[in-house]
Amino acid sequence: MTPKPSDVEKTDFVTATMSIFLAVSPTARLHTRCRSLNQMDRVGLKNPDSGLNVPLQQRRHNLARSQVNSSEYFSVAFEIDGQDASGHEFLLAAKGTSLAEALGPVCNRRGIELSNVEVMLEQYKTPLPILTTDTAWLGGKHISLREKDSSESRGNKLFSHPSRKTSRSCKGRTSFFSVSTEEGNVTSDTLPTESKSKSSRQRWSGLFGNSKDSKMEMLVEKLNNYSKFGIPQVKRNHDEDIEESLYKLEDDWREIVSKKRVVSDIECQQQAAIWELVQTEVAYIHTLKLVTDLFLACLISLQKVNLLLDIDKSRLFSNIEEISSCNFTLWSKYLLPMLACARENATLLDPNIILEAFLKCEELFGPYVVYCSEQSECQKYCREKTGSNELFTAYLAWCETQKDCHRLRLLEMLVKPMQRLTKYSLLLKAILKHTTLPKQKENIELMIERIDSFVNNVNTTLKQKEDIESLRNIMARIESYDVVETKDEDLEKLIKPHNELDLQKPMPGCNPLHKRQLIAEADLKLKDHNNSKVY
Amino acid sequence: MKTHNNRVDIKVVIVGNMSVGKTSLIQRFIHENFKENMNETIGAAFSAKELTSMSGSKRIVGIWDTAGTERYRSMVKMFYRDAKAAIVCFDITNKSSWEGLRSWISELREVEENCKVYICGTKKDLVDEGISEREVPLEKCNEYARGIQVKLLETSSKTGENVDELFQSIVDECVLDESIIAKSSLQLAENDKRRMCC
Question: Which PROSITE patterns match (chain B) (predicted)?
Fold first, then answer.
């Protein structure tokens, strides 16, 4: 690979922007920090030793009510070294309050860093995303806080975030912009806060144009706020129970089946294959939720305060929300009922229940056609903006460093739907391989046939798009010749449109459904007879 | 070049005809095991592992499994973007998988011209243990790989032979590339300085 100057420039640019927004943060950080400390004082002073640690406003609202229903609260246990494990906290579950916002004050008081812990719902294994989980559906539930690192040391080292290990001091909450925060904190102890922020502001205002500077500052402040209080969510029409079910999946299908039932080897393999479909679907829905609830919601909320207005949501995310809701439907209408049926009777999972989903996959997965065909444009758009827009780069960097992303970048998450769509067939084939009952076999074969033909359609749509693109390229390069030469301007105007070569037009003498396709492209050589020159 | 602490540094895509053992290769590399009659058809579509290069710097390798997309060539292309390296697999006991190799490589180069290509002949253990007949002679593979100047390795996901070596050489070469780019950017910067002095 030869180094291209553009690459070098790009790297330099990225480093430059990184250092710019790291440099800006001390001021912004200082503000937010002061505010959070004040808030903590307030909570601490006004509700001393109170078991209910809820933000002041909510508390007032709460006291005004005559009755307190237990289902409006959720309890939190701290399974962390050095913490009193028996001491449960009760927090208010309210619509529009994110988990981060609810847990923030409590953790602050206990000296726990939210970014260091995993939040688990009861005994289930999937951690809740703190920034995007609405506490409303947690009412009456029990959650526990667990140290993130301890679970990682057991299993995969893969997803450990080295940056987090250094921040065990548990002072405040380390924000995304923590590098410069440390400096800010140290000096602010010795200097009066005001003069510090003033001097640093002066220093930075000299470096860039005023408007950019203040916008970046605003963005940083906003993002820091999101880290503390969560991202405001767009209203969702998903059922809360179904959302909850996504965190409640058993570790293995054997936990569902009654101990008394004898499971043969072949049944075992079939169940494992079905379980894989279920398990990977849940993981996939979580990824989709991450894109919509973190990336998209964050962008929408930033645009509300006039930041990043130049970013076109639909060009970046295409119809990801529709994708998300079609997989939600697949889950709630087919997979969940299959699970529910097995759970109820403590029997095996029955693949017949999901037959209908794949029979009408054209309808169910309809949005995928649009999504896949727009994907390449979306990727291009994202890349373009990352290179040219430093606010966007900062926004992406913040989102991608959230722990729920597991090191995946937005671009990688955006291709997931394409990847997922092609896997259904593989998953179903694996189930088929271990299926013996004739009825089930027949059904699964049908499902495979339908999904294969659907994915084939998607692929054809993409192929056609590519073909049109290449034909357009050729058309742009071929100069049309003048069929009729005329001096008359009006006549020329009339003739001109007919002179252009349009390769997309139907071919003469052929069925209009047959389209031109690019078969080969190469240089054409002409040999001159007189002096045997080659052109 | 600065290393990012929390994201993938090197994106690697695994391509090749159906059932040449792409997913098994990844399974072996990531989890260091092998599953006969693999139940987990798809495993993770995306997985990552940290490797240390020859020069001692650490890199996170992100691996993209394209299993399931083989037939949908227009869709596979989407996964190539930004890939630093591609492992093109074929099954040494299956001639048609070797014949598919050429189209995979040309397609890759068309979409991501800077992507490094590695050819990987899979299921070596089947030949070594005499279970299956080798259909693609080693000399032929070597000749082809030399011709298009790419590295070729024969691996066995069952025994793990050459699997780590394959990924190790990817990391080594990518790190080497990074240092070349870093050096040339340094030179560029110096040149700029000189111009400014004049």
Answer: RAB, RAS, RHO
